[in-house]
Amino acid sequence: MGISRVEDERDVVVTGKEEMADGVVRLTLRDPEGRPLPAWEPGAHIDLMLKEDLVRQYSLCGDPGDRSSFQVGVLREPESRGGSSYVHDVLAEGDTIRIRGPRNNFPLEKAKRYLFIAGGIGITPILPMIAAVNGRRADWTLVYGGRTRASMAFREDLQRAYKDRVKVRPQDEFGLLDLPALLGKPQRKTAIYVCGPEPLLAAVEAASQKWPKGALHIERFAPKSDLAAGPRSSFEVELAQSGKTLQVSENMSILQAAANAGVSVMKSCGEGVCGTCQTKVLAGEIDHRDSVLDDEDRAAGDTMMVCVSRAKGDRLVLDL
Ligand code: FES
Asked: Which of 34, 119, 280, 306 shows a CA-CA span of 20 to 30 A to 16?
């Protein structure tokens, strides 16, 4: 997976806030002076910097060809830590907010066929992907799951536009997605793109184990539960650009240690899911604990998310 590192930060005005389904609103954001917004590609997300220390990532779900606005879909999370409830309850049309990005950890790669699997609000990055592959007449299918039909944003638009390419499978009518049946036999030249809640992502990972390497593409907005845990020991980090060497203790991240030494690294989620703090590694073995990098990136061993990942050995040298 290639990671795009365009980092633009700007104010935008909320020019639209519409209810798209039970618990889902779509925000439309525009430049205050009507200037074009940065270019982006399907799969990209932006950070909404809602308040001090309240930064959340949302996938862009509009048309990449329309530079006049960004659109994001926001689900009211029952366990909201403040982000989704702020968007639903406080943010209003006419408000100005700061955004950062777009950033793309989920790029759409060329394939002969595509199988898109979306769970709930995970439909948002898939929407521009579908428009793109449909426009180039590639073969594709979407399997869209959710709790109920009423909770599934964009469902009617998708069915109207793409008819039987779209399989709508609300859980209260169909039960859990039958992934082995939906995935079928492993196929060459078919890319699987999936976004949704963690149990769905884990189930697709398990069901696609026999598929060719690189076929599965996953977008996460919550950390993989098994990654952050695990023993932590202290290690040394050399920051090659700043000429500093730091000790990172068991209860500290590299990002915190660097900040304490006066070297700031841009961060957003702080939990290894957004890719903002990605840092080049010049030497040393990495203990990857993020939910962004794929197996290929990890094997390359030259980049890491310094908000969560650590050293396998005693020492790392970073391009900071
Ligand atoms: Fe999001 Fe590190 S800040 S991955």
From this structure: 119
